[in-house]
Amino acid sequence: MAPTMQALVVVEPERFEIREVPVPEPGPNEVLARVRAVSICGTDAHLIHGDYPGFWPPAFPFIPGHEWAGEIAALGPGADRLGWKVGDRVAGTSHDACGVCQKCVEGRYNLCENYGKQGLHRQYGHNYQGADATYVVHGVKCIFRLPDALTFEQGALIDPASIALHVANRGQVRPGDAVAVTGAGAIGLLAGDAALIRGAARVIVVGRGQRLAKAAALGFETVDTAAGDPVGAVRRMTGDLGADVVLECAGVPETVAWALDMLRRGGRCAAVGIPTASAEINLQKLVLDELELVGCRASAGEMRRVIPHVEQGRMRVGEMITHRFPLSRYADAMATFNDRSSGAIKIIVAP
Ligand SMILES: [Zn+2]
Ligand SMILES: [Zn+2]
């Protein structure tokens, strides 16, 4: 194996280039994987834009990318005892948590209390080298076997699919529920599928533009925010009662407020979009209608659980892929991702 590889290196906010960098070496219970497909996430765009200074990433230069699939190229010590071998096809996810803090032992490793502490916790592509490169090292906690029937491109979308399932789980969607989803991006559309998997009777996607057209093409009911009063529209569609559950996948203050106003009495809103500004919420309504509002961070155990749903076509990740670029054209890929008129939902980059 060559000692160096190609990687996307973000030098400082809004400045990145493809560079030749050393191939990383897998440590104990880690693998080195040949990355075959990476999907661009909204978090990548924010990170490159410099929206999370000193946090994601802790420092520049930095190699992003956390939604990926590929095949194992080398094993670190101990990875074989955990069942892995060179050539295995895998899908990756980002939270490599400590495994010993109280949140980790309770299974909520996405909330690891040793987050970001060197030697204890890594979040690949956020505070540790990511997958926008020929090779990436991952701890075995963060790789999952990719079924033969799934392509690497589909595999790159298992991480966002697991997040969508986590949102529906946190929303406690029950069979027969009317569910509204605010935001028609990839997470919103996949959250619609996750709501159906949990037994929702209706899924109403609230959004606009080409993404909302995609929601309709996938068979969801839709509300166009460009037509005005999306809250009123959802309430009318639900017999003036509101949605049992709202999955908030847009992450802007306005949609968080809408989400609460769309809820039926006693309803629950699960929010996964990460706003960069604080939002005002109607606390009086929350109290008097006994609404519940919960946050959702990444996923916690849903990677393995979502794979059969992807394989059996209920979680329609392939439908999200709108564009493909080689890693060498990352600048074009990111420009397309940031251009709403491009119709981009998920863009696959191939290192
Ligand atoms: Zn992501
Ligand atoms: Zn932990």
How would you describe what is shown here?
The structure is a single chain. This protein is of the alpha/beta class. The chain contains eleven helices and 17 strands. The strands form four sheets. Strands 3, 4, 5, 8, 9, 16 and 17 form a seven-stranded mixed sheet that branches. Strands 12-11-10-13-14-15 form a six-stranded parallel sheet, sandwiched between helices. β13 (243-248), α8 and β14 (263-271) form a beta-alpha-beta unit. The two termini are 16 Å apart. The relative contact order is 0.15. Bound molecules: zinc ion (2 copies).
Comma- or semicolon-separated keywords:
single chain, alpha/beta, 351 residues, binds zinc ion, 11 helices
Short description:
By secondary structure, the chain is of the alpha/beta class. It has helices spanning 42-49, 102-105, 152-156, 158-170, 186-197, 209-217, 230-237, 253-261, 283-288, 302-311, 330-338, and strands at residues 4-12, 15-22, 30-39, 67-75, 89-92, 95-96, 122-123, 135-139, 143-145, 178-182, 202-207, 221-224, 243-248, 263-271, 292-295, 321-326, 346-350. The radius of gyration is 20 Å and the shape is globular.
Hetero groups:
zinc ion
Count of helical stretches? 11
Biggest sheet overview: 7 strands, mixed
Low-confidence stretches: none
Helix content bin: 25-40%
Q: What structural category characterises the helix and strand content? A: alpha/beta
* Helix and strand pattern: EEEHEEEHEEEHHEHEHEHEHEHEHEHE
Q: Mean pLDDT, as a whole number?
A: 97
Q: Shape, please?
A: globular
Regarding quaternary structure, what we see is single chain
* Intertermini distance: 16 Å
Please give the number of β-strands.
17
Strand content: 25-35%
- Rg from C-alpha positions? 20 Å
